[in-house]
Amino acid sequence: MSSIKSAVYKKNRMNFILALLGSIGNAGIAVGVAFLLREFVDIAISGSMDALYHMLKLFVLLLLVMVLVDSISFVFTNRFICRGMRQYKHMLLKGLLQRSISSFQKGASAQCMSALSNDATAIENNHLEATFELYTYGMMLAAGLGSMLYLDSYVTCCVIVASMIPLLVSVLFSHALQNAERCTSKQYAGFTGLLKDLFSGFTVIKSFQAEAVILDAFERENEALEISKKRRRDLISILMLLSQISGFLVNLVVFGLGAWLCIQGRMTAGTVIAFVQLLNYITMPIEKLPALYSARKASVALMEKGEALLQAEDEALDAKTVMDFRHAITLEHVNFSYEDGNQVLSDINICFEKGKRYAVVGASGSGKSTLLQLLLGYERGYEGNIFLDDTELNTLSRDSLYHLVSLVQQNVFVFHATLLENITMFQSFPPEVCEHAMHCSGLDALVREKGTDYLCGENGCQLSGGEKQRISIARGLIRHAQILMMDEATAALDHATARFVEESILRLSDVTAIVVTHKLHADMLRQYDQILVMKDGRLEEAGTFEELYRKKGCFYSLYCLRV
């Protein structure tokens, strides 16, 4: 992946150049003002009115040029920062969205939130904005020192020696400030993660009277964050203090030597005034540059952190594209274990034929949901082979797989959007397709009562659990994918609605349905072409309802327990 930093600058090259030219122009104007003041004072002392009038016209002209240059600098600097931040956030989110579901789930979502919020603000202030301030002050310092050398080299050398102190300090402190910025960002991620858990689990916290425990955890995270922020502020304050001290010393040097040279007759009053004016263009950069340099260097660490978040496994460039499901999904001797070494699936051999309906049953923890995750490509570290027709699943592009498969899960996330937007996932579908999906998912009554423009609230807080479940089912149906997978999708529905939804799904034409269910109702199970019975990560039995019932094996035991 190309550097985010280089991409931001490359895509905004013209705005950056014009803004930089504005910074250079400002430095040149600053020098011009000093030299005009020199001539102005010397002319005023000489008493020439014509020359004084001429100088006033030059001052007006310089003022107009200054307004023009400042306008150019202001417009293009702001445009660069605005577009740069937009592109940074876009690139970061685009990269995160391109990660696999598995890699995202294994990563810390709080770190991603921190990168897009707090880190982004720090990058905007301490990198993009600071870049132009650094250039402006740097040009101003160079132009000021160059002009002072032209006026008097001895005084200028003394100024340069005094100016080196804060610059050396900034170099020494930059590494410490960079580490402090990284530490603060890490603490922000932890704090954000705790807030996320707090708000998501508010009901659970209240129900189990865990307020005191959560408050203690909050205090610990908040204290660690504030301590980290204080350490960063302390470093910046030390830098600023040293810069101010150095600026005062430079002022003292210029005023003292200038006065002495003027008394000795080696310098005119106008030159002394010019030195005083140029001194402003020396002291201000001296005060600002160390902190700006250190803060900008520290912000680079945040950009590197953002890039590190995107360093997930990349999909192979030769990943195959399959747009049509023709025959079957075949699992051959599939084994799967999580990273902790716990084996979840053992020697799975299954063939899901196109157009047939499969029910996957078994006790909790038997591997049913994990089986679906493998079929969906969420987990690819399995042993054995999974073929979609003739294509091994690990060689298939994720986009192809998600095009062919729709998933309906038990755990539903509902966006703070309208009912229709949550069903369509903000995509466009013909009205008749939307109506059919809503009907098959049992949403007719809700739509009649509240309409499709009804706002669902944050995470569906305006809906019941059953209503959110129906939205999830409608999402899976509206795409009319060739393969439909359902993981306990009707668990939150009442018996009548669950039965209606399941029958609607089983009646769908040209759809291969793989349904994980704990509802073992004979009249429904008889409608499946095959029932797969999972036990302890193994495929224990497979067959029709009648076959498995007569066998009186694992399925029979499960069925008798549930009836």
Automatic annotation (TrEMBL):
Membrane-crossing residue ranges in chain numbering: 16-38, 58-81, 134-153, 159-177, 235-261
Domain spans labelled ABC transmembrane type-1: 17-298
Subcellular location per the Swiss-Prot or TrEMBL entry: Cell membrane
A GO CC annotation given for this chain: plasma membrane
Gene3D superfamilies, sorted: ABC transporter type 1, transmembrane domain (1.20.1560.10), P-loop containing nucleotide triphosphate hydrolases (3.40.50.300)
Membrane topology of this protein: Multi-pass membrane protein
InterPro entries: AAA+_ATPase, ABC1_TM_dom, ABC1_TM_sf, ABC_transporter-like_ATP-bd, ABC_transporter-like_CS, P-loop_NTPase, Type_1_exporter
Pfam families per the UniProt record, alphabetical: ABC_membrane, ABC_tran
Domain ABC transporter: 329-561
Key words, A-Z: ATP-binding, Membrane, Nucleotide-binding, Transmembrane, Transmembrane helix
GO MF term (any one): ABC-type oligopeptide transporter activity
Domain of life according to the entry: Bacteria
PANTHER family the record matches: ATP-BINDING CASSETTE SUB-FAMILY B MEMBER 10, MITOCHONDRIAL, ATP-DEPENDENT PERMEASE MDL1, MITOCHONDRIAL
Name by which UniProt lists this protein: ABC transporter ATP-binding protein
Phylogenetic placement of the source organism: Bacteria, Bacillati, Bacillota, Clostridia, Eubacteriales
